[in-house]
Design a protein that fits this description.
6 helices; 5 strands; alpha/beta; 47% helix
Length: 137
């Protein structure tokens, strides 16, 4: 039997967010690779190629999410990356990935603020997967 499920790499140092989001992604029909930080995610990427990545911004290092997004795009620039973070609420510094310049600097396709409704995340995942499919056709 062929598995046509898309694989999502989910990276966050918040175990509650990881657990809840993993369940929701699996219930939505995705395979999930999860890591509790930048280094474990980089280890996963040595052997796996996800269809999409959802990563936290601040993990072991303040810029861990940026570094991981850069690492993922270096492996394959066509892997969509969603950065999720509570950094705006905690620091007041707003990040966005809506312009090409921001995407080039941040190395993410979408930036979402926590707290995050799963419906919002799923909408962005579906949009990015559709864009990726249309690019490869």
């Amino acid at each position: 039997m062929v598995n046509n499920k898309k694989t999502v790499l989910l990276v966050d140092d918040d175990t509650d967010f990881l657990y809840q989001t993993e369940i929701q992604l699996k219930n939505a029909g995705f395979n999930v690779l999860k890591a509790q930080g930048q280094k474990p995610a980089e280890d996963i990427l040595k052997n796996e190629k996800p269809d999409l990545a959802i990563i936290d911004l601040m993990m072991e290092n303040v810029d861990g999410g940026f570094a991981l997004a850069y690492h993922i795009k270096k492996i394959d620039r066509d892997i969509p990356v969603i950065i999720v973070s509570s950094v705006t609420g905690e620091t007041g510094i707003a990040f966005d990935a809506s312009t090409e310049e921001e995407k080039n600097w941040i190395k993410a396709d979408v930036f979402l603020a926590k707290p995050l409704r799963f419906e919002q995340l799923k909408k962005e995942i579906n949009k990015l997967m559709e864009e990726k499919t249309n690019e490869t056709v």
